[in-house]
Amino acid sequence: MSGDPKSIRSQGRYASPPCYAAEVAPDYFDPLAVDPEQARDVARWRKAERARLRDARMALSVEERKAVGEALAGHLRQVLNDRFGGARDRVFSAYWPIKGEPDLRPLMAELDEAGVIVALPLVETKAAPLTFRRWTTATRMVRGDWNIPVPPPDAPIVTPEIALAPLVGWTADRYRLGYGGGYFDRTLAALKPRPFVIGIGFDAARLTTIFPQPHDIPLDLIVTEAGAQGDT
């Protein structure tokens, strides 16, 4: 299935094909309207897009990735200052970069030193919402799921007020293409109150649509090396 979604079927309350999510209100995507064959088509398309976008970012040089990370950190710092007064004493969930993701660890250290309560997400129970544990520059990390460094089991559990979501792809209406495990959407659905969620990714990873499904939750803001996207 290519970027042209003509093979995606629609029925019931879905718009007539081609079914572009930008033209369909999110509340159209309810569980009762899901066509199983359409869902399989969407899953295959997303898998192909994930591979394409990950290959593209892995092809970047170290210098290019560093420049993206620095630009992103500057824009994110501005967002935190403008919206949250710098976020001092707030719980801010970041991420440990993997697979060519933008590296914001220098900003994490800066925020920790400025009095922000920095946390990292980790999988403690399969197919369950993520757990968030406190991170500081003094934290001795351990290996978690997929060998991602995470805070140790004795690090305090916290609830984020602001959370970063690493993006494989993203859309103008702030939908996220992730890695396909469903952990982040599951976590957002469970957190009460829901944190302000900022998607972090490459500007070149913008998509026309991800064909939102009932479990997909739009983010509050997208930030790339080009700046804040979809701010409302």
UniProtKB/TrEMBL annotation:
It comes from the Bacteria. It holds the Pfam family 5-FTHF_cyc-lig. Keywords: ATP-binding, Ligase, Magnesium, Metal-binding, Nucleotide-binding. Its EC number is 6.3.3.2. Its cofactor is Mg(2+). It is an enzyme of class 6 (ligase). InterPro entries: FTHF_cligase, FTHF_cligase-like_sf, NagB/RpiA_transferase-like. One of its GO terms (molecular function) is 5-formyltetrahydrofolate cyclo-ligase activity. It catalyses: (6S)-5-formyl-5,6,7,8-tetrahydrofolate + ATP = (6R)-5,10-methenyltetrahydrofolate + ADP + phosphate. Belongs to the 5-formyltetrahydrofolate cyclo-ligase family. This is 5-formyltetrahydrofolate cyclo-ligase. It comes from Albidovulum sediminicola.
